[in-house]
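Let's do one together. I've listed all components of the complex below, 816 residues spread over two lines.
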Amino acid sequence: MKRKAKQPRGKGRVPARPGRAGGKGKGRVSARPGRAGEKGKAAVEGQRSLSRQTRAGRVQQASGQAGATGKEAGLAPSGRAGAMGKEAGLAASGRAGEITGEIAGEKTLMVVGSVALDSVKTPFGQVQEVLGGSAAFFATAASYFTSVNVIAVVGEDFPEEHLTFLRERDIDLSGVERRPGKTFRWRGEYSYQLNEAKTLETQLNVFESFRPQVPASHRSPGMLFLANIDPDLQRSVLEQVKRPRLVACDTMNFWIDGKRDALIRLLKDVDVLLINDGEARALGQHPNLVAVARTILAAGPKTLIIKRGEYGVVMFTADRIFAVPAFPLEAVKDPTGAGDCFAGGFMGYLASSGNVSEHALRRAVVYGSVMASFAVEAFSLDRLRVLDQTDIVARFGAFKQMTIFEEL
Amino acid sequence: MKRKAKQPRGKGRVPARPGRAGGKGKGRVSARPGRAGEKGKAAVEGQRSLSRQTRAGRVQQASGQAGATGKEAGLAPSGRAGAMGKEAGLAASGRAGEITGEIAGEKTLMVVGSVALDSVKTPFGQVQEVLGGSAAFFATAASYFTSVNVIAVVGEDFPEEHLTFLRERDIDLSGVERRPGKTFRWRGEYSYQLNEAKTLETQLNVFESFRPQVPASHRSPGMLFLANIDPDLQRSVLEQVKRPRLVACDTMNFWIDGKRDALIRLLKDVDVLLINDGEARALGQHPNLVAVARTILAAGPKTLIIKRGEYGVVMFTADRIFAVPAFPLEAVKDPTGAGDCFAGGFMGYLASSGNVSEHALRRAVVYGSVMASFAVEAFSLDRLRVLDQTDIVARFGAFKQMTIFEEL
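Okay, and this is what the predicted structure of the assembly comes out as:
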């Protein structure tokens, strides 16, 4: 295992267990009148100005719309058009036409995971108590593509400015509970090779008794991402919603080893599993990734995405393999959150395109790689704060340039 | 450093130093009447039948010929045709039209390196004293694309059957010296992850005093590969030949650390450097590969190819990066020689196509990856012994399928 990087950081610290539910509904962040003063007003204004910003800032709306069906021919090498044209995989699930009862519900993406305060040190600097957590990274990356609802918990001390930032990205926080106690904190350090975080301190705080509750208004998400938490909690979220068109999940060795049965049960209902290579080997109980992929695909997911940090990503489906290298960057400052930003770009694109064909999945993997490549360029979500659609489109193009070669 | 794999195996054992030249010219393998009996006859017959076989077996002759110029449009994404059409890099060297004075000399590829007897143990089996060595792996892989001349040394005990095999692949062995003493032997073992060989024994034998001599008839090779030997010996070969159209070299940490100055001097005259990621970081003295690439490209080579074992290959030129993942294989038996087979496919394709444009280099990287992917499927050169053109073309297509995604 080379690098746990961003996704792992969220991993060494989320052994959350179902706790008592106390205070649900009342403590929701978006409904807290007690904090509505100046900051609340700013947030509302943020929301407004945001409706404009995100319309412009959404990658999918300005490009790519035609892609999934428009240029199929480009994908098929001479003489193999038939094989490539065959749309195996998720598209066949028959859920495409499902009526969700929500306006634009089909494009809405829900995530359950952590929202945290991270303190991170790398050879290129350090930050104290900055915005972190799998759901925060995921939602921010996905917000460039579609509307996102977050199911998470924060403590009384969680800074309003972070919530404002997320709301300004048009992220729906009505599923974020604010509970008595302190916010989940993680402190970690990376060596010069940036390939694995050393966890210095984990304070679960309110995350320890996190029991995700999906607001009634959010029970028909178009797609759902179960970030790395206890498989039983992941299942509880799945059971609270009408079956989404696509369900993806992440996990880590802590659950693979400690709650294997619960995880295996969950996987039967998961469409896409996103994990890193070490986790894949632990789950598939074999050193060879092809053998591992066969085992995992037989357990439920139709798609397995293996994240390999600086080496990129490989996606296995029943009869295809797609692999894309990571973008070689000189300015890698902090790998924290890269895996979650990958998932955010991946799911955000799929949700926005409403397409889960092999073609769409491949593009989604590239969008995920694009978002991860930005995430590592700065601490916390700082690079994503100043990202615009042009940056994303340009880097997508750079991935194409980097990987293209001529047919025979 | 994840995996020294095939190229490393050739590396942990080639600290050859210039020795006395004794016996040169006389002991050449191809001129040994004393061994000509039954085996010699077989070899001659092998050569004959081979002329047919290789005509059919050469990838370049049956396909790919038109590619370098025929389908440029496919390479250029919308709106970027100009940038991609720009043929930066090696094509600008002005050596394309050089007259070598040899019939078909422009397509001839020369390699200097080791020919060895390997004993290898992996979790999937073990072999004793089988054909190995960087020059043997390289030449065999390249022989699927073009004519190859080998400059190497073997001992009195080197089995004639190995020479017969190489000759049957249409490989010219007139530059292989047979000297008094025993052949270079290497014994190594791989753990279950197959990512790094543990050297158990190295007997340099005749390789210790190897001083490469290029026969007069071979002094105008079209292209030259300096496999991993002492940089001073690499230079001596370069000085014995008329400047080839393209010179590539490999090296290892032993020389990077021990003969850095000689290596840096050599690099000024090298077009393509092929090394693994650990070696690149050691040579560039920086953990970041982009920074390393800039440093190395400034030292001479116009192209840097970094081999990353199971993660694939990344190629850096002045203004472009090309990356291709390794082919995920379930049946990896022995990684010994993969790096040299990569180099053989890479250089073999370039020599056969007579083209060193960015397009050709990218295809060459894929052909290299194809040959490496076959090499690891069996011990020694066993997979390459039974390979045919159809296999190579099919796997090239599989690489394309594995890496393609739609533009925006």
